[in-house]
Amino acid sequence: xxxxxxxxxxxxxxxxxxxxxxxxxxxxxxxxxxxxxxxxxxxxxxxxxxxxxxxxxxxxxxxxxxxxxxxxxxxxxxxxxxxxxxxxxxxxxxxxxxxxxxxxxxxxxxxxxxxxxxxxxxxxxxxxxxxxxxxxxxxxxxxxxxxxxxxxxxxxxxxxxxxxxxxxxxxxxxxxxxxxxxxxxxxxxxxxxxxxxxxxxxxxxxxxxxxxxxxxxxxxxxxxxxxxxxxxxxxxxxxxxxxxxxxxxxxxxxxxxxxxxxxxxxxxxxxxxxxxxxxxxxxxxxxxxxxxxxxxxxxxxxxxxxxxxxxxxxxxxxxxxxxxxxxxxxxxxxxxxxxxxxxxxxxxxxxxxxxxxxxxxxxxxxxxxxxxxxxxxxxxxxxxxxxxxxxxxxxxxxxxxxxxxxxxxxxxxxxxxxxxxxxxxxxxxxxxxxxxxxxxxxxxxxxxxxxxxxxxxxxxxxxxxxxxxxxxxxxxxxxxxxxxxxxxxxxxxxxxxxxxxxxxxxxxxxxxxxxxxxxxxxxxxxxxxxxxxxxxxxxxx
Length: 541
Prior knowledge:
Blueprint: H1 3-24, H2 39-50, H3 55-74, H4 82-110, H5 117-130, H6 156-159, H7 161-180, H8 187-221, E1 226-234, H9 239-246, H10 249-263, E2 270-272, E3 278-283, H11 291-302, E4 307-317, E5 329-332, E6 335-346, E7 353-357, H12 371-374, E8 400-401, E9 407-412, H13 419-427, E10 432-437, H14 446-462, E11 466-470, E12 476-478, E13 484-487, E14 494-502, H15 508-512, H16 515-529
Parallel strand pairs: 1-2, 2-4, 3-4, 9-10, 10-11
Antiparallel strand pairs: 1-14, 4-6, 5-6, 6-7, 8-9, 11-12, 12-13
Helix pairs in contact: 1-2, 1-3, 2-3, 2-7, 3-4, 4-5, 5-7, 5-16, 7-8, 10-11, 13-14
């Protein structure tokens, strides 16, 4: 094959992988394409090994495919920050390309392009790692692609999204190998291989999902359901023009409470207001005297049995003798304070306010990753949430308890993308998940739709109803099977009410977390040794 023809083919395959993966993603959601999306990439790998091309070509074509995938699915980040978006696209594409380069190097040493398990385990190890480091951006974890099709992945209550990633990669691997070996195989062998791929790769996981769902429903029917009536409020205050600029904190609180008041009835037990619903930099040392808190207390006096969860833009000053945190800011010599993206819990007949400070912060927005090294790039921060800057955090999740059964997991915006982190709320007793967010930063784009749909996966993993209050974007309710019950319209002030089931059971995933990811780290390390030792065939499956 002539060199120019090879590169034309490689470029076409690279573009094809990027397009297939992007088209499979919500909200376009042509999810079957994800099962063939990596096949062109594996053909790139095969052609490069077969034609003995140098490693930089593997890097170029792999990186191009993943860059197209990233831009095609998360281009909306540009609406918040052009410079920050470019950095996110490039960094995430480079990280995704690392398992591909790892595969190429190992295959080149062993003179084979058909053995792909090293890539699969390296990819899952990358996803596991990407959920836990300083520059975390797990938005495109492969298992998230099924957020629009909860009926396919009810077994996420055992595996989490990493199980979906393994499924996708295994099917792509088998399809590629079948296509490569198609001609050498006899007619009967071709059919047998195709049947095995269809049965094990597509039918069996789908059947398993229906089986798991049926078993869960039977379990639900065996005990009396305990329910609570919840309201979510979407005040729809423009985050650019009004929330932090022209509209006062007093006016914003009044608008929010007015929407709630018009939709209240005596059965509502809890109201959820969105992320940074209370603005004006509330002083956590003196919340009782904050005007917005007084307004909420006045509202609660009309409805003496209602509990309220609300987001807040707040700060806390360190008193003399108190040790400042690592994120504390010095405003006078020797005087420090921390700023927070917080959730408050107000209860009837109590002057105390329970507080949770967002723990997983958006890199480049609420904290600067690798701050000691990258301080000079702070100007490119991406504006993806309410409060920005280097914020203080709580060290662990915290639940809001109204009574023995009504226990909320206050999940603030970006935290809802982290499946294993959400399980920590459930381990602490949360009986439902309450996501508060502010998704209007990206405009009417796929961004807020993807964020909404990812909540479906948290519902399946934990078997908890999800209550979602968004300032802008979409407020919604999901049941414990991941199905959307009702939602608001985009860019529209609204309130919704829903009776939700409260659950105290813990799923296998809640108890055990991302076990597949942990094993992937070990397997990837095992294959990595294959690049070090001398024997060609060692460490290749």
